[in-house]
Amino acid sequence: MSKIMEDVNSIQFLLTRVRDGEQIDSIKPDYSDHVEKLDLINVFKAVLQVNHTNKDITIYDIKRFFEIHQHLYGHDVSEIHISDDMNHPLHVLKKENHLLSDSLNIIQLLVDDVENGEENLIDTLVAEVKRLGEINCHFNRKEKLYFPILERYGIYPLPRTIWKQHDQIRLLIKGLGNRLQKIDSIEFRNIRRTFDDLKTKCEEMILEEDFLIIPITQILFKEKDWLAIAHESSAFGYSIELDGRYRGYVGNQRVKPLNDTEQLQFGGGYLTTKEANLILNNLPVEITFVDKNGLFKYFNNIVESSEMMFIRTPLSIGRNVANCHPPKSLKKVMYVIRDLKNKVKETETMWFKTKDKYIHITYKAVFDEDDEFMGILEYVQDIQPFFELPSDMKRNVSK
């Protein structure tokens, strides 16, 4: 048996005893024997492996497991120790979770009061549930900034599990809002059950951040990773007000200028790389390219990330396309790629409305002159302005 599997089996043995309710004092001696000889990151990797393969082990068991660690070694793994700067990305996550917990407690009280007949509080309850949706930016930052870096350090199942959990919470928030709109025509127990499910899922999410995300990222992430997260977070926003920026933040790193002298052949003419880049960044479409190995390789910069129809930031470059999408839509994405790669279809198109935009998406396979598959091109544009064109033709230059 490999050393890794021995470690996993040892951790599973301890976690199973924790799950079964054995007293902490009786577990401590074996915990010390098995865990003390391991680097902390290897303890976490073993815990993640057990959690991934044994669905009976919950985040509550993992919390108790690491409470034993604190009893023995005086080290609280959920504590942020790498920075005292309250604008550090991890402190921001913590503060947003405190706000989420406070919001859930307020909604709990309002649900209780409305259930007890205080109908004058229904509008307040609806408003609080709507405000709860602001936590979505917290989820987006984790999915688009933290998860790509975790994957680079070899942590794969955890991001997928937590992303799935995020989607469940999003669905429950939406469901609770929809049920409140029908409060006069449905039994209140349906609202109560949806809120209880939502509160449980949010509490589990917070524990997973405290006892998995926060300690693992503190061990693995380098300062350059935190700087990248701090720099790119503004594209997704925050559910709290920040009182400054992370002090390690240094702004945009100076990028090596593109070649403006060498003429390279593109299509039917010649361009410098600088000219080609400027053209791509001035097209009225958002372009992304996934190469033949399924790696997200390129996106153009026509607007700031926060203004994009589909927000993309540099941290996602190099990420496998399968990990760039929510677990719930992965199967659909892989079907599209398969059909385009095998020439079942030339293109795949989708469209939908959002606020004042009508988003049109096209996926197209790219083949070279030898008919070898090179990757998938996606281009996205807002076609709402086309619907608003007057019926009269326009052939003259605007004055």
How would you portray this structure in words?
It holds the Pfam family PAS_10. This is Hemerythrin-like domain-containing protein. Residues 88-215 form the Hemerythrin-like domain. It is a single chain. It contains 13 helices and seven strands. The strands form two sheets. Strands 4-3-7-6-5 form a five-stranded antiparallel sheet. Strand 1 (264-266) and strand 2 form a beta hairpin. The model has no long low-confidence stretch (mean pLDDT 91). It is of the alpha+beta class and 399 residues long. It has three domains: 3-73; 89-235, nmb1532 protein domain like (Four Helix Bundle (Hemerythrin (Met), subunit A)), CATH 1.20.120; 285-387, PAS domain (Beta-Lactamase). The protein is 52% helix and 11% strand. The chain has helices at 3-19, 24-35, 40-53, 59-73, 89-115, 122-132, 136-152, 157-181, 188-220, 223-232, 273-282, 330-341, 384-387; strands at 264-266, 269-271, 286-291, 296-299, 347-354, 357-367, 373-382.
Structure summary:
52% of the residues lie in helices and 11% in strands. With 399 residues, the protein is α+β, with helices and mostly antiparallel strands. The model has no long low-confidence stretch (mean pLDDT 91).
Topology record:
Blueprint: H1 3-19, H2 24-35, H3 40-53, H4 59-73, H5 89-115, H6 122-132, H7 136-152, H8 157-181, H9 188-220, H10 223-232, E1 264-266, E2 269-271, H11 273-282, E3 286-291, E4 296-299, H12 330-341, E5 347-354, E6 357-367, E7 373-382, H13 384-387
Antiparallel strand pairs: 1-2, 3-4, 3-7, 5-6, 6-7
Helix pairs in contact: 1-2, 1-3, 1-4, 3-9, 4-9, 5-6, 5-9, 6-8, 7-8, 7-10, 8-9
